Amino acid sequence: MEQQFDLTIIWAGIIGFGLMMYVLMDGFDLGQGILFPFAPDEKARDTMMNSVAPVWDGNETWLVLGGAGLLAAFPLVYSIFLPALYIGVFLLLAGLIFRGVAFEFRFKAKTSKHLWSWSFAVGSTVAAFAQGAVVGAYIQGFETEGFVYSGGALDWLTPFTVITGLGLVAGYALLGSTWLIMKTEGAVQDWAYKITPRLLAGLLSVFTIVCIYTPFIDETVKTRWFDNISIIWILPALALYCSFVVLRSVKKRQDGMPFVASMGIFLFSYLGLLVSKWPYIVPPNFTIYDAASSYNSQLFLLLGFLFVIPIVLAYTSWTYWVFRGKVKEGGYH
Amino acid sequence: MELDPLILSRIQFAFVVCFHAIFPVFTIGLASTIAGFETLHFKTGNPIWQKLSKFWIQVFAVVFGIGVVSGIVMSFQFGTNWSNFSYATANFLGPVLSYEVITAFFLEAAFLGVLLFGRDKVPQGVHLFAAIMVASGTFISSFWILSANSLMQTPDGLELINGMYYVKSWSDALFTPSFGYRFLHMALASFLTAALVVAGVSAWFIIQKRELEANKKALSVAMWFLLVLAPAQTIVGDFHGLNTLKHQPMKVAAMEGNWETSTGVPLLLFAIPDKEAQMNHFEVKIPKLASYVLTHDWDGEVPGLKEVPKEEQPLVFVVFWSFRIMVALGLLMIMFAVWGLVLRPKGRMYESTVFLNGLRLMSVAPFIAVLAGWVVTESGRAPWLIYGQMTHAQGLTPSLTGGMALFTLIGYVVVYSLVFSSGIYYLLKVFRGGLEKANAPHEMDEIERPSRPFSAAHVAIDGDA
Predict the structure, then answer these.
(1) Which domain holds residue B49?
(2) pTM score, two decimals?
(3) Cβ contact, residue pair A107, B84, below 8 Å
(4) Looking at the domain assignment, is residue B163 inside a domain?
(5) Membrane-spanning regions, if any (chain A) (predicted)?
(6) Domain that holds residue A252
């Protein structure tokens, strides 16, 4: 079939965009669960959960869409990542289920409320850790034979992936705390201001370790970084600048800027990761072109996406608009 | 004994699918029921329909809430346990599953909020429209899922090149030869499920003499539906069976417990099929009836399992008995529909406690029938994952070990048991609250929160509230 467009590039863009959307959006609501056990009191927990209740499952739809979209556009990624991360994927799903159910039941519970609080906290933390470990595993690469994964069940679990796992837990907690700064006031906001710098410090230490470690395990990254050193330093520099903005705005007690800057840290680190690995999508062996599905299938789905994704984005923005403003105690009434 | 990842993966998939399938089959039918109640209210202005709708919307919200959570797992199962299968079929399966997300989930998500919380905020017509859109969303979702499933049963429109399928014709692949029958059979099953649950719960309220006027109306409507749907399902099922005979003869042979290809085959009422011995024990049969049912000719030829080697035969015992459970429950449904018709004059339908209690029990029947039906069609396909083309063993994830599969199997059983028991417990509480609670002014504001499906139900999960 004659290929008029490079659909594979377009799809890499769509999937990359979808993943970023997922990380930013589910990140701050997973962050509420991670911070849950450390919240000052039960009332603060109610407020935290209320601040994300109207939007969290819309956020999680991006994950389902990402999974299905990955199968449609890059089946090789789907069929190597999922078996390689088998146990991690299970932990991720179990975590998401517990926390999803907790969202429903905690609001309805009186005597058993603390059980659902734990379910929410543990589920969110496990899900965030598993996602962070996936990022680490992607940097490490996968052992493949032909087009199938040939490594063991726990190959993904290395000291490096534990660090990236903890890093994402800290990162989501940061998104969560800056979200709270933006969405709450009073005692909860004071608490969020207080913990934000510590979470940032945790995230930055992981960031440093990853930056030092990565070129040592991956030749491609090493070459890319040191051959293009005059350009490539921009992305980590921007991420660091955003960290500085978080600190400064927390000090000035601005309430929107910390969240925006935290998203900036994620965005530039993510772009940095993509630039380092491009065009490898299943490192170290396969590029996006090796992993792509057929032109016909990519085109068939693209037509649907072009039509629907703008509507989904519009609907999502509308939901956020409806629930704009600060959360008062007792929800949005 | 060595743990077999293949068997464990099949058990795991069956477990997750069966658990999940209960929810959509109920929500599809219930969404249409609610849309029906809303339409009746819109047209007649009779507040009874609104009362009923308010109660069943609460039930819908809870079932939907749990169904969504259990559904996330499904989209990742293909990749974790059946990576060879997902890779080979990705050109078809990927777009189909993605289209389900963007067409159906989007529609449901957008209008669910209006249906659950918008009654006083939007005009009545808009609210009705939302109810219809949610119902449509559930059907669009089942369209994509059954299309994917039908392709595994009766593959068409694909071309296999170097271990990967390519779509030659999207219309052939989406509408394979068995798709229409499967879709209709499933749609009727969903309506039957809703009709029987509404009938059973209403019967229970009538026995307790609660909200008699509304519940009698609901029971009456449900019984009319049952009277039409149950026989219609038998007819559709028969056509579906003929289609299966044409495209998947070994599945039909297993359903009939028929070993030798022959003419004038009897219908077995009872038998213990023995795959090892390649024969049945303790047969109780009606001569020539299977031939008549399947070929509409008393001496028609029916294929037997021995046409293929033993390892290509499905699990005969499981398929044979699941099929009988499904058919028996279907006949029981017809019996209840006729019984209701006989009792209808002079309102005896609302007074016979035997009948009403029978209906209470029957509200579980459609769920068992649906699960049995899925076992027939899925297990009957074995050993083929894609009928005649790819076996379960070929589709399995190569790196998967028995230990890994066992670990996640136990994990899912534990997680789902917790979710399911909490969900059922809560659902029963909503049932106990009845129409009274659903229509009461919002007295429980402190445990209500916006936008979550469960918020539509004004019942606490613990304490007596």
Answers:
(1) 27-245+323-438
(2) 0.89
(3) no
(4) yes
(5) 7-25, 80-103, 115-139, 159-179, 199-217, 229-247, 259-280, 300-323
(6) 10-323
